[in-house]
Amino acid sequence: MAEPHTEKPADSQTSVRLDDVDRKILSLLQEDATLSLDQIADQVGASKTPVWNRIRKLREAGVIRKQVTILDPEALGLEACFFVLIRTSEHDKDWAKRFLKALRDRPEVVEAHRLAGDIDYILKVQVRNARAYDRFYQSLINEVKIHNVTALLSMEEIKATSALPIPESTR
């Protein structure tokens, strides 16, 4: 069995060449990271040691970042999900540093992305209710200057997954 390896393509980003067994292992782990090595090995048609070596190499290569447990927000009483669109007139390093720290310090921000286009940032904020969102909003704008904020309440989650599509070829 071939083992995954890293290589440096022309754009200088690290990529990993995956074979069918690697892709199957990754698919299984994305679905259920609690599977034992024996279960994974059985499903990919390999023995335990080569499967463990592949998983270790995929971790070392950065393909597998970490293993986590995904919680149900509603079971925790976090029933309101807001997508927050942020425009800023500030683009200097000091503002960005304060803004990123403010986001990282707030556990209710479960995702944050810097965007191209008219909107500078989009946040996914998971809170109990609209009142909790308002406390988050007031706290954020008191900490960093923001030009414009638009909050969109998600009425229904239609699809949510942490599983990535695993390409046939990473080259």
Automatic annotation (TrEMBL):
Keyword list, A-Z: DNA-binding, Transcription, Transcription regulation
GO molecular function: sequence-specific DNA binding
InterPro entries registered for this protein in UniProt: ArsR-like_HTH, AsnC-type_HTH_dom, Dimeric_a/b-barrel, Tscrpt_reg_AsnC-like, Tscrpt_reg_AsnC/Lrp_C, WH-like_DNA-bd_sf, WH_DNA-bd_sf
Protein name: Lrp/AsnC family transcriptional regulator
Transmembrane segments: none
Domain called HTH asnC-type: residue spans: 18-79
SUPFAM superfamilies membership: Dimeric alpha+beta barrel, Winged helix' DNA-binding domain
Pfam families: AsnC_trans_reg (PF01037), HTH_24 (PF13412)
One of the GO BP terms on file: regulation of DNA-templated transcription
Family annotation (PROSITE patterns): HTH_ASNC_2 (PS50956)
One GO cellular component term: cytosol
